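Example 390.
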Amino acid sequence: MRAPRPTFAGRTAPGGALGPIPSLRPYPTLPVPQQFTFNVGPAAVYPAVRQYLQDAYDEGWLSAPHRGERFTSLVRQAVTDLKLKLNIPQDYTVLFTGSATECWEILAQGLTPRRSFHLYNGEFGKKWFDYARALRPGTTDVQFGLEEVPDMGALPFVGEDTDLVCLTQNETSTATQIRETHILQLYNRLGGALLAVDATSSLAGLNLKFIKADVWFGSVQKCFGLPAGLGVLILSPRAVARAKEVNDRAHYNGLPAALSNMLNHQTNYTPNVLGIYLLSRVMADREPIKAVAQHLADRAQKLYDFFEQATPLQPLIANHDARSTTVIGLQGEPALIEEIKRKALEAGLTLGSGYGPLKNTSIRIANFPAVSDAAMEALVQFFVKEYVAA
Ligand SMILES: *Cc1c(COP(=O)(O)O)cnc(C)c1O
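Predicted structure in complex with pyridoxal-5'-phosphate:
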């Protein structure tokens, strides 16, 4: 049972000058929390977040000034641990933003004086392209099929006037992933362009090779196991130099101001201090990414095999080289999908819905670090009980 929340009913303002303050409605009782969620974002948070939140309050972080020494040490520590645990090169710069969506806009404004090129196969890649094109009308794209491994050698982006080549490393909407070797192929034929990678649903879940791209970004409500409201933008020295050349001073979230503030471990506006605090706690407690990524890869393999062999669902992506390891996509008839989601919910398991055009014919399972093995075991047991013939 939750302790009843205090209300301000009947209280009078000090001195009584305002007269009695009308009583507030008591908070509604929250529904009993689901046992496990497999949503791909906002996704399951680490159980330790409960303690971190309490500590943040107790330690006074919720009102900590963002120019003070205490906050700047926190940022320094968060960035140090982030680089250490995720294998981010020391000479790369980490910036904090509000979301991955904001990163799309920052990159169009701050690294794209002329146009960008976008390679994608799903809704997030398309949204990025749409935002970028709205700001830079010459922006171009190539879409590829869900089962396809794009041929990086055959892409038409090479043109003197392409500033930024953009790809979505893990397309959350289609449960597909672009592997390291293909990113490398692309990186090797960039010419003067920079390579920017949306890794929102793989950053902190995969052992990404940061040296093979100039810009990486994501937000914390996916593989970091944290509540939403913070984005992480990672820039190579080449990207930092370009941002200074482009010199976008017309926007509050422009890169030059963010970069110069970050030299002092500050931000140019009051940041999400709680989010940064939680990030620093999670990173300090985390295993190194190599171990985390291996665990997720092994678990993904087992899950795909289980669903393929033992349930009426099939992997959404048949091609082993194209499917995601952090977002497990499964497909079935709409009626079956609906029934599975409903029965799972009754059993305390919230499954992720399909996204966009795949909404009715697929489900997605977050294979994120904060989803415990016990949760996965409960999921498998649910399917064994409900769908595997005895
Ligand atoms: C979730 C997601 C986004 C959007 O993240 P926000 O933090 O909501 O802006 C962008 N790209 C990908 C690949 C995502 O999975």
